């Protein structure tokens, strides 16, 4: 099977971008990186290891990572090499245009993993796939529709997260979590963005 990488669709310079990738080979990011905007990383299929804030998160089908601006992170292959994901980058100002209320949901906490229950996954995937389609077709007023879909996505994520409060967290279910977390913490502690181009 071959990798499938769709173009990264953008709205504005740093306002919004979305990209679909289906990957069948082992792969990892060589070092931590960060963004000036928010990142939503949704796994449509497969499994990935995410390293962030001194923790390792085993991200599985239907999971969403919410990564705040300037939060160093990186990913690596798990035992399951095949994965399919959609990544969205967006600025707070992009969400605030039109109706500023959904932007308040971005202030809900630190970068985190949200496990989407199977029954709710179609409600998360639908706006993501529609955003991809709108950005590809670029029909009149597509930017406004993409922003509206982002509002819907953030509200649905907020509702799912609120309904799961108090349930036992399973973020640290990787068998080597303790050792990998120790390594991730060392990398995060020694991460120097100024040295990236050295």
Mind explaining what this structure looks like?
The protein is built from 4 helices and 9 strands, in the order E-E-E-E-E-E-E-E-H-E-H-H-H. With 198 residues, the protein is an alpha+beta fold. Strands 1, 2, 3, 4, 5, 6, 7, 8 and 9 form a 9-stranded antiparallel β-sheet that branches. A hairpin with a 4-residue loop joins strand 2 (9-11) and strand 3. Helix 2 runs antiparallel to helix 3 (142-163). The longest helix is centred in the last third of the chain and has 22 residues, at 142-163. The chain is globular.
Biggest sheet, in brief?
A: 9 strands, antiparallel
Could you tell me the number of beta strands?
9
Low-confidence stretches: none
What's the overall average pLDDT, rounded? Answer: 83
Give Rg in angstroms: 17 Å
Helical content (DSSP H or I, runs of 4+): 25-40%
The percentage of residues in β strands lies in 25-35%
Distance between the termini: 37 Å
Q: How many H/I helical runs?
A: 4
**General shape:** globular
Topology:
Elements: E1 4-5, E2 9-11, E3 16-23, E4 38-52, E5 55-60, E6 63-67, E7 73-77, E8 83-90, H1 92-96, E9 112-115, H2 121-137, H3 142-163, H4 177-189
Antiparallel strand pairs: 1-3, 2-3, 3-8, 4-5, 4-6, 4-7, 4-8, 6-9
Helix pairs in contact: 2-3
Describe the structure concisely:
The chain is α+β, with helices and mostly antiparallel strands and 198 residues long. The protein is built from four helices and nine strands; from the N terminus they run E-E-E-E-E-E-E-E-H-E-H-H-H. Helix content is 29%, strand content 28%.
């Amino acid at each position: 099977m071959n990798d499938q990488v769709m173009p990264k669709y953008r709205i504005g310079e740093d306002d919004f971008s979305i990209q679909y990738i289906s990957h069948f080979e082992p792969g990892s990011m060589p070092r931590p990186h960060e963004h000036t905007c928010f990142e939503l990383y949704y796994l449509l299929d497969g499994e990935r290891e995410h390293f962030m804030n001194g923790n390792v998160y085993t991200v599985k089908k239907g999971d969403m990572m919410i990564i705040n601006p300037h939060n160093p992170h990186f990913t690596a292959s798990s035992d399951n090499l095949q994965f399919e994901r959609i990544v969205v980058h967006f600025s707070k100002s992009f969400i605030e245009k039109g109706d500023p209320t959904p932007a308040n949901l971005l202030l809900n906490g630190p970068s985190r993993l949200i496990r989407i229950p199977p029954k709710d996954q179609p409600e998360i995937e639908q706006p993501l796939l529609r955003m991809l389609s709108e950005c590809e077709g670029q029909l009149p007023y597509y930017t406004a529709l993409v922003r509206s879909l982002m509002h819907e996505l953030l509200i649905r994520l907020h509702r799912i997260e609120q309904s799961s409060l108090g349930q036992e967290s399973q973020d640290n279910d990787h068998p080597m979590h303790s050792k990998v977390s120790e390594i991730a913490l060392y990398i995060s502690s020694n991460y120097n963005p100024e040295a990236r181009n050295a």
